[in-house]
Amino acid sequence: MKKKIFYAIFLGIFSVQILSMLSIIFMLDNVIKNLAFSRLNHALSELTSQDIANILLHKDSIIPLTYRLSLISTQGEVLYDSQADINKLDNHLSRQEVQTLLKDFNKSKSESVRVQRESSTLNEQTLYVANMTIIESTPIIARLSEQKRAIGVLLVDLLPYLCALLFFGFILSIVLALILSKKIITPIQNIDLSHPVRTNPYPELQVFMERIAKQKKKIKKQVALIQARQRENEVIIQSMHGGFLLINNQTQIRSCNHTALEYLHITAQDSLFKIPHLKPLINELERISKEPAEQANEQDYSFECEIQERNLYFIALPAWVKNQLQAIALIIFDKTTQKQAQDFRKEFSANVTHELKTPLSIILASSEMLKSGLVKTEDRAEFVNKIYTESQRLLTLIDKILRLSFFDENSLELEKTPLDLLEILRRVSKNVAPLALEKHIKIVISPQTREGKIWGISSLIEDMVYNLIENAIKYSHDNSTITLSITHSGQNIIMSVKDEGIGIPKNEQERVFERFYCVDKSHSKKLGGSGLGLSIVKHIAKIHNAKIRLVSQVGIGTTISVEFRG
């Protein structure tokens, strides 16, 4: 708009300057012509009849040489000419000034006549003034003439001055156009669009400002509606159970929820192509983008990817516009827990089958050998003892499996009662004393131990303590010490079992509470370990809302603590 106003003002001012100059030139030409006519008329008026008679008689003009005097008869014959040979001049009867004077003479008029004629060859104008004079009863036409340059010649002579004036006029026009356009535009630029009608500087814009005000109110309502819908959509997206991700055809994120960002380990400003760990996802998206648009619009896509140790299930909804992929909406579900549970069930089934099969195979083989009489009399007691030991081991294993299944069902409805944790430690340590004596292990209660009163299920707490001490005995070195302690942390009570055993590697400490998991399987087999003891401890702690902490160093020992809420 500013440019248009500038050019309009500039062209207007510059055009006026050019037109003014041309007008002045034409007016100047007209003034020069009128002055010339006045001079000729004055000179002619001073020419008396006696002067004309003398000229005709003596052929001697008293008229200045700048003028040309011609004396013409009423028949058009040139009687005298001050600047030309009359014998070479043609008849002047047809000349305009002659015809006009003859007509006026017949009408008894005696006014002088002015005539202007141009010469196209000489590019000059000739001005004529003529009147009728009576010489001795004979009418004679006296005519004075003067040469005047044509306006074109005048323009050529004035051209350098005109160019200079046009140049300065051009500069002046630019300066004035800049000043005026700025002066016009500045009030418009300073209009407060919050109150366009009130701050309108020009009445001519009033209708336009009123429309802006109405449109502003309409836009404000629409923006508020859009924002409300955006907030509603944002709440819905953020409240989704799974992740939501909307990406454009450049894999830039346009919309997402926190769940999707957490699943993919990214931020909302990331471009998916630039993140190495998303390569499996990018490969799937590229496969979708290469599908024909007609086929892609008729189906949805689903696939699984493992990203940062998460098993994610994706539902992809591509959006095609004019056969061009514009965006892809991704709905993401975390299947990690389900997959882990599935893998755990497979592993658990395999472990249960293996753990049950081993003692059963020993019992069956020993029984068949006894039945077939293949065992010597002196060896029969050893085989019977082996059958008894494996049967006990089998019963213990079945009992632990049943306990874990019982915990998994969450059907435990036993009532919790106040328990003396120190008393339970003393009682259980006496029960496992025979196992400790076999390895010459001492079980001691720390001198700093204080009484600990908790609410719990007595049988389960005793089972927990038994499994912890039994596990410590199995993995402790001979002639070592197991220390039991009870400490307080605020209102909470912490029970700890510390051994001086083989220890647990750092990378396996998180798995020791899994079912059938053993750090050293060969060592566990020798000791009769099933890998279920610590898993039972974890479930009992969960029932009592207790936390388990494990601190261990290979070759130094392990401390397992259970913290009960006060």
Automatic annotation (TrEMBL):
<dbReference type="InterPro" id="IPR005467">
    <property type="entry name" value="His_kinase_dom"/>
</dbReference>
<dbReference type="InterPro" id="IPR050351">
    <property type="entry name" value="BphY/WalK/GraS-like"/>
</dbReference>
<dbReference type="GO" id="GO:0016036">
    <property type="term" value="P:cellular response to phosphate starvation"/>
</dbReference>
<dbReference type="InterPro" id="IPR003594">
    <property type="entry name" value="HATPase_dom"/>
</dbReference>
<dbReference type="InterPro" id="IPR003661">
    <property type="entry name" value="HisK_dim/P_dom"/>
</dbReference>
<feature type="domain" description="Histidine kinase">
    <location>
        <begin position="351"/>
        <end position="566"/>
    </location>
</feature>
<feature type="transmembrane region" description="Helical">
    <location>
        <begin position="158"/>
        <end position="180"/>
    </location>
</feature>
<protein>
    <recommendedName>
        <fullName>histidine kinase</fullName>
        <ecNumber>2.7.13.3</ecNumber>
    </recommendedName>
</protein>
<keyword id="KW-0812">Transmembrane</keyword>
<dbReference type="InterPro" id="IPR004358">
    <property type="entry name" value="Sig_transdc_His_kin-like_C"/>
</dbReference>
<keyword id="KW-1003">Cell membrane</keyword>
<dbReference type="GO" id="GO:0004721">
    <property type="term" value="F:phosphoprotein phosphatase activity"/>
</dbReference>
<feature type="transmembrane region" description="Helical">
    <location>
        <begin position="6"/>
        <end position="28"/>
    </location>
</feature>
<dbReference type="Pfam" id="PF02518">
    <property type="entry name" value="HATPase_c"/>
</dbReference>
<dbReference type="GO" id="GO:0000155">
    <property type="term" value="F:phosphorelay sensor kinase activity"/>
</dbReference>
<dbReference type="InterPro" id="IPR036097">
    <property type="entry name" value="HisK_dim/P_sf"/>
</dbReference>
<keyword id="KW-1133">Transmembrane helix</keyword>
<keyword id="KW-0418">Kinase</keyword>
<keyword id="KW-0808">Transferase</keyword>
<dbReference type="Pfam" id="PF00512">
    <property type="entry name" value="HisKA"/>
</dbReference>
<keyword id="KW-0472">Membrane</keyword>
<dbReference type="InterPro" id="IPR036890">
    <property type="entry name" value="HATPase_C_sf"/>
</dbReference>
<dbReference type="GO" id="GO:0005886">
    <property type="term" value="C:plasma membrane"/>
</dbReference>
<keyword id="KW-0597">Phosphoprotein</keyword>
